[in-house]
Write a structure and sequence with these properties.
Elements lengths: L4 H4 L14 H31 L6 H30 L5 H35 L1 H7 L2 H18 L2 H5 E8 L2 E8 L3 H36 L16 H6 L7 H30 L8 H25 L1 H11 L20 H4 L7
Antiparallel strand pairs: 1-2
């Protein structure tokens, strides 16, 4: 099942018939989807590899980024790649089991991605605004438990799609085509969609807006003095912040990079989310072929662009990516030579805090 089926089912129809697409559309669709998915799959695999194979990269924040990378990989493979065969073959080619499995993993990846973003947003807020509490709340073991809980809950939540999806045979111009579509009617599907929309899009963005606003207040509107001992009381959180003053310099960069991830999540999902909301109130759904392609490409781009952001804004990830791509024996370097811009953790970095 592909993402555009969501909007089509608002009219209780399927979009499994692709044979009347123009050659121009097929070429552009296949090329762009293949390019974005290819770059995204390689990039997210690199994120997972550099964190799992590099000891000093295994920090709470990076654990959440690994979870996000795994979810994005799921979206690209379960939602992106099937669109290529749909455009080329003109019908569903993965059978009944493929319809259920691909639909399930597509929604699992989308929802786990949203929850992972929420998790690292909360972790950033605690680490920056409550650094004393972060010593026992923002730990590696706790991050792993939270990630396991996120995936367990989203896995159970998405089970419903196994019962809402099915293959159907559709006769078009005397040709029998197989489609992967929803079983339920529009009236049954809309409450499910709006629950999903609220829990995995609206609420995470509202929470992120509030928490990043509080983080900005701490980091940018009320910065630490050059001499941490110069002030004994500077407002909410200052006494705690002095405990982590050695980490103050990288914090704006950390937050800025993770905030970019959140903003892109909001912006790139907006066309699709808006389309479905609008179609919910239209008698006849708006299903322009090129606009649907644009919505899908935005979603795939959201899952593919995060590794690019890490490379552009994090010295640690940039160096780790270079090492992963290089061949031959590597010269040993001390972890302290890296910037701490991405993986701030009170527990993880206290021991070498004076070595920046």
């Amino acid at each position: 099942m592909t993402l555009e089926n969501n909007t089509s089912m608002l009219d209780n129809q399927t979009l499994g018939v692709w044979h009347d697409y123009s050659i121009e559309y097929k070429v552009i669709s296949v090329l762009l989807v293949s390019l974005i998915c290819g770059v995204g799959i390689v990039g997210n695999m690199m994120v997972i590899l550099v964190v799992l194979t590099t000891k000093h990269m295994r920090t709470p924040t990076n654990c959440y980024l690994v979870s996000l990378a795994a979810a994005d990989l799921m979206v690209l493979t379960a939602a992106g790649l099937p669109n290529i065969t749909d455009a080329l073959r003109g019908q569903w080619v993965y059978g009944y089991a493929g319809c259920l499995g691909i639909t399930y993993f597509q929604y699992l990846g989308i929802n786990a991605s949203s929850c992972s973003i929420t998790a690292f947003t909360v972790e950033r807020y605690i680490a920056i605004c409550h650094p004393i509490k972060a010593q026992f709340l923002c730990t590696l073991s706790r991050a792993k438990k939270i990630i396991m809980l996120v995936w367990a809950l989203t896995s159970v939540y998405c089970v419903m799609w196994l019962f809402l999806s099915d293959t159907k045979k559709l006769v078009y111009d005397n040709v029998v085509l197989l489609t992967c579509a929803y079983k339920v009617s529009r009236s049954h599907y809309l409450p499910i969609y709006f629950t999903d929309f609220t829990v995995f899009y609206v609420l995470p963005l509202l929470l992120a807006t509030v928490l990043y606003g509080l983080i900005a207040r701490i980091l940018f509107l009320n910065p630490l003095p050059a001499d941490p001992k110069a002030s004994s009381s500077r407002g909410c959180g200052d006494s705690q912040r002095r405990e982590s003053s050695r980490r103050q310099e990288p914090q704006p960069g950390v937050t800025k990079m993770l905030a970019v991830v959140v903003v892109l999540f909001a912006v790139l999902w907006m066309p699709y989310r808006t389309l479905v909301v609008v179609n919910s109130f239209l008698e006849k759904a708006y299903l322009d072929t090129w606009f649907l392609l644009f919505c899908r490409l935005c979603i795939y781009l959201n899952s593919a662009i995060n590794p690019v952001i890490y490379n552009a804004m994090s010295q640690k990830f940039r160096t780790a990516f270079k090492k992963l791509c290089q061949c031959g024996p590597q010269r040993m370097e001390k972890p302290v030579t890296y910037s701490v811009a991405l993986t701030y953790s009170v527990i993880k970095d206290t021991s070498n805090g004076e070595k920046k």
